[in-house]
DNA sequence: CTGGTGCGTTGCAATATCTGCAACGTCCAT
DNA sequence: ATGGACGTTGCAGATATTGCAACGCACCAG
């Protein structure tokens, strides 16, 4: 809508790929060098880009600080975190928390597996929306028409032989997930990795987030992982209760929540 | 330099404080509502802001994803991380990694203490630059004139009775730190918290990052913490060696480094 | 039911703002 | 020296951005 801003913002993902010099930025943007320079300058003033010693531009610190603030404001995350940690302590596997936002599902928290073999994922990174267990739960809860619209728009990459192949199959899967109130991903994203997931609901019953436990075949079989389902669901329910204000917040470890700012 | 971009970017920190509606954004920016609307729309298209169900705007997901990418590109961080973890396993306390960037020092990695009492800090958050041990190391290594310029510009908040009171004292402290090659913060930020820090150097000998171990008095005394100094320095040196390419990268646990993307 | 208030949204005309150009400075390698 | 690559600046023209005023809509109170 606003050309100047549009161009300026386009610079950021570009720099995320790695440092770039002025000429490169200008080229990729399709504008004159002087224009790119002025945009970069503005970004720089706000701390969004940083000019390293070799004169090339990198993403700046303020960006990181902002994102961190953004995450702290997500109150589901804050409430859920101790529960995720506890769950991880109980089962040892990687625990994820994800939310849906504008056609994307993204991880907003993660507790690493205690086993040496870990799965690759990244907080803030959009998840493989057509196969991830958490994505299924989040999409399954969208209103009928919106869900349909989103599902139709998606691509269906065949990560493995068990990936969801197309919209139709996905809709069917979502219906099932919606029905049973939990979801799995059995090797749909990476051949050897399985997940079990459960929804976290707000006071009105709508799914606000989803959590999952993931483990590679070499550690536990899919069947063994499924035995954790009740535990995962209980954890998710506990978070739901706390998030929607039904459960009096119970602090297993009150020192876990330090004061914001001043001592 | 560019008014439009400038205004657009100013919206982000504003939203970081919490969700805001159009009117509020327009007011704070000092522009007409329609102008604010168009800026927000552009930010929205890029995923930097998100419109929640009550129509108010929040910081968006792309911001988080970008910041995460930005951090992954910091290669000091990547190299240092396993070392930080190992150090944490050895001593049990909170370990921080920080870099200097444009008049600020900020944490770019953190491994939490295993003790229940933890210190409050946040990745991406600028540190208390006048007192933090890591900040001293990073500033101490700046070229004379630049260091002086920065130090003069700073505020010297008295967090505690032992905080650095003014520029003069700070310069003196920096000289000492520069001399000895390590730094401490003994209750300068929070009465009951002490830190020991050591520098990480690039191939040219310049300090590229600094790491610290922090622990509250209730867990270990300052003297006890100081006994960790040799260990901290060895760790920092190990990171330096690897970062500057002198040391052949040695994998204590090769499975620690998952492949990027595809399996 | 109705009038009012608060909010987001749109079309428009005026102009302030941004753009691309061309020229300059600097650094580096040939 | 000399050429090229790169970042930087002043300028005039063009275009994108702005604020206004009017509209639509939802919500609330009388």
What do these coordinates show?
The structure is a homodimer of 263-residue chains. The first copy, chain A, has 263 residues and is an alpha+beta fold. Chain A has two domains: 3-66, Winged helix-like DNA-binding domain superfamily/Winged helix DNA-binding domain (Arc Repressor Mutant, subunit A), CATH 1.10.10; 74-254, 2-Layer Sandwich (Beta-Lactamase), CATH 3.30.450.40. Chain A has ten helices and seven strands. In chain A, the strands form two sheets. The first copy, chain A, has a five-stranded antiparallel sheet, with helices on both faces. Chain A has a two-stranded antiparallel sheet with strand order 1-2. Chain A is globular. Residues 251-263 of chain A have low confidence and may be disordered. The interface between A and B is large, with 64 and 64 residues. The structure holds a DNA duplex (30 and 30 nucleotides). Chains A, B: Keywords: DNA-binding, Transcription, Transcription regulation. Chains A, B: It comes from Streptomyces viridiviolaceus. Chains A, B: Residues 250-263 have a biased composition (Basic and acidic residues).
Tally of alpha and pi helices of chain A: 10
The strand count of chain A comes to 7
Distance between the termini of chain A: 44 Å
Sheet-strand content of chain A, in percent, reads 15-25%
Share of residues in helices of chain A: 40-55%
Q: Ranges of chain A with pLDDT <50 over ≥5 residues?
A: 251-263
CATH architectural name of the largest domain in chain A: 2-Layer Sandwich
Structural class of chain A: alpha+beta
Strand line-up of the largest beta sheet of chain A: 4-3-7-6-5
- The CATH topology of the largest domain in chain A turns out to be Beta-Lactamase
The CATH homologous superfamily of the largest domain in chain A: GAF domain
Gross morphology of chain A is: globular
Q: So what's the CATH class of the largest domain in chain A?
A: Alpha Beta
- Kindly give the count of domains of chain A: 2
| Major sheet summary line of chain A | 5 strands, antiparallel
